[in-house]
From TrEMBL:
The protein's required cofactors: Mn(2+)
NCBIfam families for the chain: amidohydrolases
Naturally occurring in which organism (per UniProt): Planococcus massiliensis
Domain Peptidase M20 dimerisation: 179-272
Protein known as: N-acetyldiaminopimelate deacetylase
GO biological process, one term: diaminopimelate biosynthetic process
Pfam families given in the database record: M20_dimer, Peptidase_M20
GO MF, one example: metal ion binding
Record-linked CDD domains: M20_Acy1_YkuR-like
Cofactor comment: The Mn(2+) ion enhances activity.
Length: 371
């Protein structure tokens, strides 16, 4: 299969979580082109699970790819750029999917001893597909629930051919954050008759910045990012509403609770000080990704001895990944795979080097063979 072509076709149809309808249909068409004798395919919401029968199976090895895009206007200038205005595969899930198809092709052409299952999982960027997918597999399709599971994420800052991971904690736990402020708006010329939510929201946004520096133990780590701040309607009306949208990242649950307590206290103080009402919604939250110690060490050993791959031990990162719900219940490993892009994840000009698709499926197939 021409994996670059597949990646580019997927790149053109990015869809956000649980709306991956065209993506699913595209994937189904690709799957139907494979010889079907060794395959079993099931559908879950906008996702798919594809099982490949092995030669002499003693276990089921899982590979998970995410399939959703992001609400970002693409600015790469590619001739294969997104045909969905305002949406882009800016986190590399198009590469992840093409890699998974390449792996599938190899598993069919050159079967390994064990059975393998490839999970095409929706909604990694939000609201989170891994937990409900895992629960559905467990309760409704237990023969598709792997005994161990692997996944990768592209790493723009690493050269192609590099894989990086570590035993134990790899990614942070996350909570989304949505804060709505509501007060009395009015005429721009009569501020004394209003409570300005643009000012209240801006004050809150600045105060939130002190939580990480003043309330989290410096030997611990946390992130509080407000990625979007909106207020008001037009230049000469004092804003009645403001909204902050963000995400919290910590390395453990007690820190997450602490950060949330401080957010709530600051919101109460802003309510009092700016005479407004504030509501907080924590949206969806993800568990940390914890790599299985033994499997991660074995993965790194294999990669170190594989010609054409540079294996590195990585640090933990504040990225979130709902793959953490798989590693919560199944031994698993997630790793970074270098794609050498000047622009990073979630950037409108992310430009992964597609030559990675010549390397990864073969490498993962060989890794699965010796498990
Ligand atoms: C790999 C990656 O970039 N994952 C996302 C996960 C987002 C989770 C959730 N929507 C949130 O914003 O908290 C990330 O931003 O790390």
């Amino acid at each position: 299969m021409d994996l670059v072509k597949i990646r580019r076709e997927l790149h053109q149809i990015p869809e956000i979580g649980f709306q991956e309808v065209k993506t699913q249909s595209y994937l189904k068409d690709i799957l139907s082109a494979f010889p079907q004798e060794r395959l079993e395919i099931i559908q879950w919401k906008t996702g798919l699970a594809v099982k490949v029968r092995g030669l002499n199976p003693t276990k089921l090895i899982g590979w998970r790819t995410d399939i959703d895009g992001l609400p970002i206007q693409e600015e790469t200038g590619h001739d294969f750029q997104s045909t969905h205005p305002g949406f882009m595969h800016a986190c590399g899930h198009d590469i992840h999917m093409a890699n998974a198809i390449g792996l599938l092709e190899r598993l069919i052409e050159d079967p390994i001893a064990d059975d393998a299952v490839i999970l095409f999982q929706p909604a990694e960027e939000g609201p989170g597909g891994a937990l409900p997918f895992r629960e559905w597999l467990k309760n409704e399709q237990p023969s598709f629930l792997p005994d161990q599971i692997y996944a990768l994420h592209i790493a723009p800052e690493l050269p192609v051919g590099t894989v990086a991971t570590k035993p134990g904690l790899l990614f942070a736990n996350t909570s989304e954050l949505f804060i709505d402020l509501h007060g009395k708006g009015g005429h721009a010329a009569f501020p004394h008759l209003t409570e300005d939510m643009a000012v209240a929201g801006a004050a809150l946004l600045m105060q939130l910045q002190t939580i990480i520096s003043r309330n989290v133990n410096p030997m611990d780590s946390a992130v509080l990012t407000v990625g979007k701040f909106t207020a008001g309607t037009v230049q000469n009306i004092i804003a009645e509403k403001a909204r902050l949208e963000g995400t919290i990242r910590t390395l453990n649950l007690p820190s997450m609770l602490k950060v949330k307590q401080r957010i709530e206290a600051m919101c109460r103080a802003i309510e009092e000080g700016y005479q407004c009402k504030i509501s907080i919604d924590y949206g969806s939250s993800y568990l940390e990704v914890n790599n299985n110690e033994e499997l991660a060490k074995a993965f790194l050993r294999f990669a170190e001895n594989y010609t054409g791959i540079l294996a590195k031990r990585s640090e933990a990162a504040m990225t979130g990944e709902d793959f953490g719900y798989f590693t919560e219940e199944l031994p698993g490993v997630m790793f970074w795979a270098g794609v050498d892009s000047e622009f990073g994840l979630h950037h409108s000009r992310l430009n992964p080097n597609e030559s990675v698709l010549e390397i990864l499926p073969k490498f993962i197939h060989q890794f699965f063979k010796q498990l």
